[in-house]
Please model this.
Amino acid sequence: MTATLTELVARFGGELIGDGARSIRQVAPLERATADEIGFVAQSRYLAQLQHTRAGAVILPLEARDACDLPRILTAHPYLYFARVSALLNPPPRPPAGVHERACVAADAVIAIEASIGPGAVIGSGATIGARSVIGANCVVGDGAKIGADCLLHASVTVYPHCEIGDRAILHSGCVIGADGFGFAPNDGMWEKIPQIGRVIIGDDVEVGANTTIDRGALEDTRIENGVKLDNQIQIAHNVIIGAHTAIAACTGIAGSAKIGRHCTIGGAAMIAGHLEIADGTRISTNTLITKSLPEAGSYTSALPFSEHAVWQKNAVHLRNLDKLAKRVKELEKTMKEWGDKP
Amino acid sequence: MTATLTELVARFGGELIGDGARSIRQVAPLERATADEIGFVAQSRYLAQLQHTRAGAVILPLEARDACDLPRILTAHPYLYFARVSALLNPPPRPPAGVHERACVAADAVIAIEASIGPGAVIGSGATIGARSVIGANCVVGDGAKIGADCLLHASVTVYPHCEIGDRAILHSGCVIGADGFGFAPNDGMWEKIPQIGRVIIGDDVEVGANTTIDRGALEDTRIENGVKLDNQIQIAHNVIIGAHTAIAACTGIAGSAKIGRHCTIGGAAMIAGHLEIADGTRISTNTLITKSLPEAGSYTSALPFSEHAVWQKNAVHLRNLDKLAKRVKELEKTMKEWGDKP
Amino acid sequence: MTATLTELVARFGGELIGDGARSIRQVAPLERATADEIGFVAQSRYLAQLQHTRAGAVILPLEARDACDLPRILTAHPYLYFARVSALLNPPPRPPAGVHERACVAADAVIAIEASIGPGAVIGSGATIGARSVIGANCVVGDGAKIGADCLLHASVTVYPHCEIGDRAILHSGCVIGADGFGFAPNDGMWEKIPQIGRVIIGDDVEVGANTTIDRGALEDTRIENGVKLDNQIQIAHNVIIGAHTAIAACTGIAGSAKIGRHCTIGGAAMIAGHLEIADGTRISTNTLITKSLPEAGSYTSALPFSEHAVWQKNAVHLRNLDKLAKRVKELEKTMKEWGDKP
Model:
């Protein structure tokens, strides 16, 4: 797949300067791009990266019109433009449509005619696979589950019965959609299982990373709204709601019934306690534990600064005595105030 | 599946007040329950939830006898009662007994006649599957492994060779039982593998969450005792012992040879160091790191409070100087004592 | 499989004292070893463990020549010696060579003749499987992927298209090699996917734990160098480089484009931020967050000490006021200095 610069500008907009017939085969970082590859500079402060590039063309911010002599496309959003050019040049490979002879599809499952069901995939009774969706090798789609149109389930994805996934979803290998939430009633020191009869409902344009788990609801559904992006190894407990267009980095855990707003960004390995609400547009740092609702958008953190081991040990021991230290300071202040009050 | 209130009380006990012929089809939260659904109030302080419910019946604590006019069941443990009613009304679906034609069962594996082996499942040589157990699609049960009776392995579970699982286990998709523990002998800057020749032995009534991993022992076995409940994405290293009826929330890691007591509860994303012992009945908070044995039951934590990012940054910098701060306070105290001692 | 002590010394070196004809069937911990088993003592301070052992032989450090009357092998590295004896006595079981009739191998895949492809395994178009490698049940090896010689992929491993794995790799169940990195360009509050066109390149002698995920690069490749050992449930983001012979414990996350040195050891549940470099030979503690480059080898930590819950609460509240506390101490110092300066 190749495209000329003229074709790119016709498709994605931007202002073309230089040879529009230049043919582009691939995107690449500037330092190793070659004559049939296009690079980009996201912001003017990185323009020095252009100096030694051998790229065939570059995507530049508007104000960098004269930053080089290469054929170039000017745009207000170079990174986004680059993403779109890359998507054009790197369409996901499509296996042939139809059901592979080594797939196992229930007689009453509904497979849209252009869909592709890979070898070893198992599609349960009453399940629905939408138009043009690709179900990878060894995936399991449970009874009554519903996968929308234009979805891509990479190999070895598991969708439990009756869960629903919208259009254009990308699910990576090993992710598990709809396992039972962790719900037990205590009974004399033992635990009795509470059936998890809710589902997982996932909107359109959602991406779910490898080995991420999203549990089905206890009574209501767990809901992932449109445009949510989830990295790898995220755990989303039962009854959680993730608002539209929120992005969550890897290894984060979200406990039961938490309601995350729209357009939030959550760093890796964050932990969000259950039964709380987080405002739209909130930003949570890597490794941060959120234990109560955040009614106002903002940037929140509890990530510890690290030190050399020996230094840390010396400091950390005082964490166990902070209250005493604070009291000692108060005592000093009191004494000094008494002394200061004396004539 | 439906049951009348009279049938419920006959089966589960409790005191029935009102129309025993009321037929119940499902459990539901009070705010959306309808005429053929039953809700519950766990404790008297939540009785206000009854005000606008349209539930057909409710389960109430004993002292709430007169809290509403609905048909109701009084019990000392409403949540537990609710769990049991839900379990009655929502039996896990059972695939047909027998070996699916797309399963692959070794000639010398022993499959109890009422068991169900799903499509794509692989049962190794000498493995045993107990009576009425369900092995989901694309599960792999290794050579010589043993699954008890009435177990439910959801799709895509992996059990390594020679591991043993008791009766009534529920294993969720993507969990891996019996991978090698992380054991290497250093050799001149490189690592030589130490064969992990122990097994994983899991008791009765254990539930293991999606994508949880339990490693086999190095020389001895890793052991999960009866009634243990493990959430998703938990990592249990080699030679760990988890005492009976302990419950562990998602994303927790337990390092090698740790011995966790019985009836403990461990919050999400906790980390337990290796080679330590934790007393029966201990409670460990979310995000807490336990680095030494806890010989006495109690509630332990090291979870950080979060702040607005800017506030946190200002405070966190002092963590690197706590020792100096403490010394400065000591110095102040000393000086003041000297001064105070002066006449 | 058995070996006499004489055979062991012929193969692995060391000094034999006592009956060289003693036949050893298995390794075992000293406290439960029997007459045909061999135990070891790693260091002299543990020699008391010899007192009640019924082991048939022991491996001892050089200086422990006279520590017991058992047949014994003296060596400078007893733990390493023990590992090698165990590896000899416990060779990994090898399924028969060839492609299982229930495997699904693309017509143009290249399978070395001594390799073993298990039931339910799917090998993509143009993929290569090296000599003597074992591909477990229900594994998926994507189009154009390359697995070296003498590899062992346990059941249910997923390797995405075009990733490459060297010789003698061990990949545990549920690990996912080559899923898309987490890369999106923001567009007016939404996210547009950036195709991840790099690969994962894994060197020789690498072990990858169960449910560990290693993402493919965005433009360049993610690289895991020779001899790296990764425990379970580790997340390695796109474009990361892990230097040779580095070992990483379970549940650790490494963010995008981090470059980890060679011969590092990283404790469990550590988190390494993206776009930083860590020096060769660095040690990072369990639960530690590394947020900037570590240009010098050393031992780094930010792990919190835990306390009883009530004690912790009392201390932790001051973390939110550390800056104020530090200022109060400064104020006290200033006042005292003023007073002290007065005659």
In short: Helices of chain C lie at 5-12, 78-89, 309-316, 322-341. The CA atoms of residues 322 and 328 of chain C lie 10 Å apart. Chain C touches chain B through 74 residues (CB under 8 Å). The longest strand of chain C covers residues 57-61.
